[in-house]
Design goal:
The complex is a heterodimer of chains A (205) and B (374). Chain A is an alpha/beta fold. Helices cover 58% and strands 12% of the residues of chain A. Chain A contains 9 helices and 5 strands, in the order βαβαβαβαβααααα. Chain B has 2 domains: 3-119, Beta-Lactamase, CATH 3.30.450; 129-366, Heat Shock Protein 90 (2-Layer Sandwich). Chain B has helices at residues 3-15, 34-40, 44-47, 58-74, 121-148, 150-176, 182-210, 222-239, 259-277, 335-345; strands at residues 19-23, 29-32, 84-89, 95-105, 112-119, 218-220, 243-248, 255-257, 288-295, 301-307, 349-354, 360-366. The longest helix of chain B is centred in the middle third of the chain and has 29 residues, at 182-210. Chain B is elongated, with a radius of gyration of 32 Å. Classes of the chains: A alpha/beta (205), B alpha+beta (374). The interface between A and B is medium-sized, with 26 and 32 residues.
């Protein structure tokens, strides 16, 4: 998963609209994958592929909103920029509530779309970095022994070594050794960092 | 005949609302009642002894003596006993429509005739007004349909506009690259032009649908009418999340029709189908409207609009073509009533039947244009 180039997916059933967006993205040097149906996108969707999705709201068969729901069900993180020919406010609200990255009405200014695509790609990168960071923390946490996890829980709740020693019925020296092992295994440089890691983990579990 | 009876008869004639005129076999006027004086503006004295053709117009005025001569000779009645609508002339030259009935006075030789003239100006005007009203209603309902379709049309127009704008921006950016691919830019420019044509086409179709009343009928191929509507119907279908399929039979005979009106009926029926399907859409992914044409065994041309929605509720089956019968929250209930009126004015029929396995199917049937024997 080392630095796969980002792809801009364009899903619109209108050939001209899809092709014109493809050309605009190409002029920016961005790689695209134009698709004419939501089903096609869903069946070839690879969660490991970084990028963003420019999605038409209304399409025959599966609509853009339906595709978004499917992606949400799969826990996909790809940012979705909706485009629509309708000034349909309720639909825009629904899309945003479902976590759309943004909503654009056709016809749009190139700058508006470009800016959103660039922000969506940046967001995707951040999301993916966070996700992989979180996965690493989870891996490290999983490598702790049961005793080390107990110590970690007490440390992050702000207990002093002496108190922990009493709680766990071990020597203060033993607590210090466990604590050092936890910090090392978790790659934490400070108590504050350790606390933040644990909060992140809790958030996702 | 006693003087008394004759006076009574005179009073009877003068009391009549309709004009009553007595003539002989040469057309000479022998009696002209009050109502006739009032209708034609002549006094009885002015017309007695003159030829009745002075009250007539056109063909009748020229041919009347001939009619009389023919009857006197052959005794074959043409108008006698049946009557017909004619245009007649007042003293001042103005004309008015009248229903004329003629009888022969029995037992007289050579024959004498009595004519009854009933002024139908008023009923004619009412008829014309009702025609006009119907035309206006048809037109207004067409505008309403176009209005309902406006959001679909706007969507449809936004597609080429969006494509044009985006292509143009892309061209601009491609040209700014260090080593621009001129061929790519050129082909994009051509695509922009195509999209402009597409946008114009959508507008032209919408205007054709909304255009004012023209009662002109012309021989048309119903497939052409439907193809003209395809863009609008498809965009409307898309807006409802329904797919719309067309199955047009080739080689249909032409029908004599007012194209805009038939299109209005088709749009109306398709919209009904779409609205019937839209609520079902989430449950049934295959919501579909089929617009088909075919030639029936009896030679008529059929346009059918079928859907796989919930169908017409049993309770409404006998009333759906009645005015103000509606199942829609915002409907006027006039769509189907007007549609059927339009089809009837084309001597056609508009019926519905349940679709298999579910849904409704509306059939619009029109007689073919008589083929030219030449």
């Amino acid at each position: 998963m080392k630095d796969r180039p980002a792809l801009v997916f364009i899903v619109d059933d209108d050939d001209a609209v899809r092709n014109s967006i493809r050309l605009l993205m190409k002029s920016l040097g961005l790689a695209t994958r134009p698709l004419s149906t939501a089903q096609e996108f869903l069946s070839t969707y690879d969660p490991q592929q970084p990028g963003c999705l420019i999605l038409d709201v209304r399409m025959p068969g599966m609509s853009g909103l339906e595709l978004q729901q499917q992606l949400n069900l799969r826990g996909a993180i790809i940012p979705v920029i909706f485009i629509t020919g309708h000034g349909d406010v309720p639909m825009a609200v629904e899309a945003m509530q479902q976590g759309a990255f943004d909503f654009l009405q056709k016809p749009f200014r190139d700058q508006d779309l470009i800016e959103r695509v660039q922000r969506a790609l940046a967001k995707d990168q951040v999301n993916r970095a966070e996700l992989s960071e979180r996965a690493k923390v989870r891996e490290r946490f999983d490598s702790l022994t049961p005793r080390e996890r107990e110590v970690l829980a007490l440390v992050t709740s702000g207990k002093a070594n002496k108190v922990m020693a009493a709680d766990l019925n071990v020597s203060q020296r033993t607590v210090e050794i466990h604590r050092a092992r936890v910090m090392e295994k978790m790659h934490a440089h400070s108590l504050a960092q350790l606390v933040r890691m644990m909060l992140d983990l809790e958030e996702t579990t | 005949m006693t003087t008394n009876t004759s006076r009574e008869l005179r009073a009877l004639l003068d009391a009549a609302v309709d004009g009553i005129i007595l003539i002989d076999h040469l057309g000479e006027i022998h009696s002209f009642n009050r109502a006739a004086e009032r209708l034609f503006g002549y006094s009885s004295d002015e017309v007695l002894g003159r030829n009745v053709s002075i009250l007539m117009t056109g063909e009748d005025e020229k041919e009347h003596d001939g009619y009389l001569a023919r009857y006197t000779e052959t005794r074959t009645p043409h108008i006698i006993g049946t009557g017909r609508d004619v245009m007649v002339r007042r003293k001042d030259g103005t004309q008015f429509p009248a229903h004329l009935s003629v009888g022969v006075i029995p037992g007289q030789e050579p024959p004498r005739f009595v004519g009854f003239i009933h002024d139908i100006t008023h009923s004619r005007r009412i008829e014309a007004e009702s025609h006009q009203l119907q035309d206006r209603l048809t037109h207004v309902s067409r505008l309403a349909t176009v209005g309902e379709m406006a959001s679909g049309i706007a969507h449809e127009l936004n597609q080429p506009l969006a494509a044009m704008a985006t292509y143009a921006h892309a061209c601009d950016r491609l040209l700014a690259l260090p080593d621009p691919d001129i061929e790519e830019v050129r082909s994009a420019l051509k695509l922009i032009a195509d999209q402009a044509v597409r946008a114009g086409d959508i507008i032209r179709r919408m205007r054709a649908l909304a255009r004012g009343e023209e009662s002109a009928r012309a021989p048309v191929n119903v497939n052409t009418l439907i193809e003209e509507l395809a863009t609008l119907i498809n965009s409307d279908a898309k807006a409802h999340g329904v797919s719309c399929r067309q199955e047009l039979a080739p080689d249909l005979p032409l029908v004599s029709a007012n194209g805009a009106q038939i299109q209005q009926v088709v749009v109306n029926l398709v919209r009904n189908a779409l609205e019937a399907l839209a609520p079902e859409r989430a449950a049934t992914a295959g919501a579909e409207v089929v617009l088909a044409t075919r030639r029936l065994p009896d030679g008529r041309v059929e346009i059918s609009i079928s859907d796989n929605g919930p169908g017409v509720p049993e309770a409404l089956k006998d009333r759906i073509f009645d005015p103000f019968c509606t199942t829609k929250a915002t409907g006027t209930g006039l769509g189907l009533a007007i549609s059927r009126t339009i089809v009837a004015s084309h001597e056609g029929t508009l019926d519905f039947e349940p679709n298999q396995p579910n849904g409704a199917r509306f059939n619009l049937r029109l007689a073919p244009e008589p083929t030219d024997p030449a």
